[in-house]
Structure formats: structure tokens, C-alpha cells
Amino acid sequence: MEQIEFDYPSKRKVSRKAHVGVVGSGDLEVLLEPVEGESSHVFVRTSVDGFRDTWKAVLDRFFAKYDGVVRIQINDAGATPGSVLLRLEQAVEVSEQ
Amino acid sequence: MSYERDDANSINRQSFIELDARERAKALFDVGTSRELLGPFDRVESPWLSMQGVTPQADDGCVVMKGKISGQAAVVVALEGAFQGGSMGEVSGAKLTAALDLACADNEKGVPTSAVMLLETGGVRLQEANLGLAAIAEIMASILALRKHAPVISVTAGTVGCFGGMSLAAGLSSYIVLTREARLGLNGPEVIEQESGVDEFDSSDRALIWAIHGGEQRYATGLADALVEDDTQQLADVVRQLIAKGVPPVHRSSQVALYRGRIAALDTSRQWEPRELRATWGTSSSVEEKP
Description:
heterodimer; A: alpha+beta; Ribosomal Protein S5, domain 2; 5 strands; 31% helix; B: alpha/beta; 38% helix; globular
């Protein structure tokens, strides 16, 4: 298991937290919480080692569109980059409802 | 109680099996009455998994919800079969035990509170071996304490099924609800094949597995109290009916003489077919009437 952390500059206040997904094979769990400040923190725990660059690429793409100030925790059980992005978007959808 | 297959309605019904543990638990309560206890944001997760290189889940695969069912207080504990096969570790076990104990305390204070366990589990989590075993012992003690006051209902819908130590927990509950897709048994098919060989049990033979462990067979041999379709509404209705029924006069697990008698009367010099057992052991309703 590998732990990876990232920070992204953000501005917009988010009102609700969101939890989506499950740590099942090929899937992941996302916990998204509003925080104070001007930076979002992402904490990833993944069962598959050695994919730091791929995680960075997926999260760079996500934060290119998303501007909420949040803390995101990802517990991953080998999800594909596509699944990761879909789960992140689902978490945003739940938190903006 | 058993429900006839209604294939015409299969498109309209909402599957229970396809729901995750949190959605399953919520679906059983009166609308708007449920709240989750120790949810994922409380981050009470297994301390042991990450030490062994396994990604933990923020709720340890155990969802506890309190609310009202038919206007009466109830707690629902749902195990997430997709996370580590729904296995019981130190944290998930403690959550289930604490939920049952709090329900028991409420009953003793005069607030009738029943419990529903949604069991999709292979039993003890091997990464937490002894702690998982201890947890299951505690769960069983808590079920025995609670079931004197209020019904404890086990539901296994599938697709994981209910095996290992948690099948004992199911066995102690007041009522067992299964679907045709569910499996219930102490040793799972792979374990039997591994221990006794493929001649004893072929774990790749799905028809054989369901003929023995399947929900329909368990119901038909009197080892379950209700057989339901994979239908959320129907399942919620059956749980309501069983709660209304209250504590059974005699629990299945107290009928020691009946089950010893059944085993003693079985001629083991020949191979029995699962269908013959249905005729010999009958349905659960006939079991309930015999003390």
C-alpha cells in the first residue's frame, strides 16, 4: 500500500461533505469535506504501488475544473483512472446537491 | 413466509442486492427517520489493515443506523460485502456488538428496540484473526442478550452470502430472511473443497452450491423463516412483519433435541439428495410449532 498527498490552490467555499464508493476490488472510496483556507488537500491510500504520476495526472485534471476548498481522502483498491475521476465527480455532485 | 416468483414484475422492482450496505440499511427504515452512527467521517477504521498493506475503509465495512421501523425504534447493522468480503475485524465487530448492546439497554429501559443484521460476510477477517474471532464471540453473546427482549433479524440477500463465524450469529437470531440468490452455511464451498477434496464438494459447481447452501434450500429445510425476491420493498415489508411478530416463543437455536434428532435419524450410509431433505425436514413453519 502506498500513501500519496497533493495540494491544490482553491477559492470557492463548499457547504456539504460527501462520501461515495467502496474499497472493493477495482473501486475506491472518496471522502470530501469542506475546509477553511485557500488550498485543497488530497490524501490517497492505494493498494497498488508505483502510480504516483498517474494519480497526479488524474487529480490535476479534476482540479483544472473543480475550485472548491476541500479535504479529500481517497481509499483505493486498484481503481482505473477513469473510475477515480467518475467517483470524484460523483462526490462533487453529492456535495453540491 | 415465501413469495412466488413474479417475473413479469422483475423490470419494475428495485433490486436490494444491487444496493450498497448504506443504501440497504436506509431502505429498511420509515422514510426520514434514520441516522448513521459512527459513519465514514468519524474515521473509526481498522488499525491493522494498513500495517499489512491493505487499504482500510473509513467505516470498516460496517454501517450502523438507528431509526424507526413501523414507528418503533430499531437499529440496522449492514456489512459491506464488497470490502474485504464483508469480513469481521476488531472495529466492525465492535460496532456490531455495541449497536446490539445499546439496543438491549434501551429495551431494559422500557424502549422496545429491535435489531436487523444485514449479513454479507465470509466471517472472521483473516488479517485480524484472533480479534475477529473474539468479536464474533461478543456478537453472539450480545444477540443472546438482546433476543430475550426484542426480535433480532438476520437478512442475507447476496451476492456474498453468510459464512464462517457469522453464520453462527445468523443461527442465533430470532428470524432469518434469505433470497434465492443468498447462500448461508458454516463452511463455504471453497473451504470444504480445500479441506476434503473436490470429490467431497466441487466449489466450481454453482448448481451444487445453491442446491445445498442456497436460500431456497435453506428455507425449504426449515433453516430460514422467510424466502423473498430480490425486491427492496418486499424485503422491507417482511422485516416489518417479523418485527410485528415479536420474539418467537422458542428460538431455532434452542431446539437442540429437534435438530439432534434429525441428525440421528439420518441414514448416512447412502448419499442424500438436497431435494429429499426438503421432504424429510419440512418447512420452517412446522419447526416453529414444535418446542
